[in-house]
Amino acid sequence: MEPTTPIKNSSSGLVRQLGLFDSTMVVIGIVIGSGIFMTTGIMAMVLPSVPLILLAWLLGGLHALAGALTYAELGAAMPQAGGQYVYLKKAYGPLPAFLFGWIAFFAYLTGTIAAIAVAFAEYFGHFFPALSTKHVIFSASFHLITATVPISISSGQCVAVLVIVGLSLVNYLGLFLGKIVQNIFTVAKIGTVILFVIFGMAASSARPLDFSINPSALGLGQLLSGIGIALVAVSWTVGGWEYVTFVAGEIKNPGRNIPRALILGTVTVTALYILINVVYLKTLPLSEMAGVVTIAERSASVMYGPTGSTLLSAAVIISTFGALNGSILVGPRVYYAMAKDRLFFSSVSKVHPRYHTPGNAILLQAVWAAVLTLTGTFEQLFTFVVFVNLMLWIVAAAAVFTLRKKSPHLPRPYKTWGYPTVPLVFIIATAGIMLNSLVEKPVESLAGLAFTAIGIPIYFYWHKKDVREIT
Question: Among 241, 292, 428, 436, which lies 20 to 30 A Cα-Cα from 170?
Answer without folding.
Answer: 241
